[in-house]
Amino acid sequence: MRSAMREEIARLKRERILEEARQLFFERGYQGTTLDAVAKRLEVTKPFIYSHFENKAALLGEISERGTARSLEAITRAHDREGDPKMRLADAVEEFVQVLIDHRANVAVYFREQQYVPEESARKIDDMRAEFDTKLAALIQEGVDKGQFRVRDVGMATLALGGMISWMYTWHRPGGRLSDAEVRANMLELVMNMLRASCGA
């Protein structure tokens, strides 16, 4: 029990470090942020950070991986369950959009700072993005096969759909004129129009 408690405390400490590092990377950029600045924001010493992360690059790697991992989880849930492909894709799109809303800073930091992401993290992200594209393409193809989508090139549609939603980090702002639900609904409408989805199930 004590061991579990220690692990939970360590996890919470790591999360706090990641939270502040992510915000500073987002505000100042990776190159413009020092571990001293992260420590100051947390009101801790730099050795405290080193006790949880090897270096600043390790922070960037974990921050960058998270947005991609959440996106993959969303498409995997829709891909792996049975049922109507159009409805499954709709659920995946709405969840994917919410990931971009909830993890905007993670996504922004990754795209802005890709050149500094550690090689191991970059490989993991590339693998996750490839799996995401494969599963999204399979869902779209299933809808095409059932006459629910009309797409000339499934591969191109996959990249266009993923790119359109991923790019949300450049324009979506928390507290804007549209609620999260409205953003999800509007993005879903754009996706379905792009796929020329049938009106029926």
Automatic annotation (TrEMBL):
Superkingdom field: Bacteria
Gene3D superfamilies: Homeodomain-like, Tetracycline Repressor, domain 2
Residue span(s) of domain HTH tetR-type: 11-71
Keywords, comma-separated and alphabetical: DNA-binding, Repressor, Transcription, Transcription regulation
Record feature DNA-binding region, as residue ranges: 34-53
Gene Ontology MF terms: DNA-binding transcription factor activity; transcription cis-regulatory region binding
Record has Acyltransferase as a keyword: no
Protein name: HTH tetR-type domain-containing protein
Organism: Minwuia thermotolerans
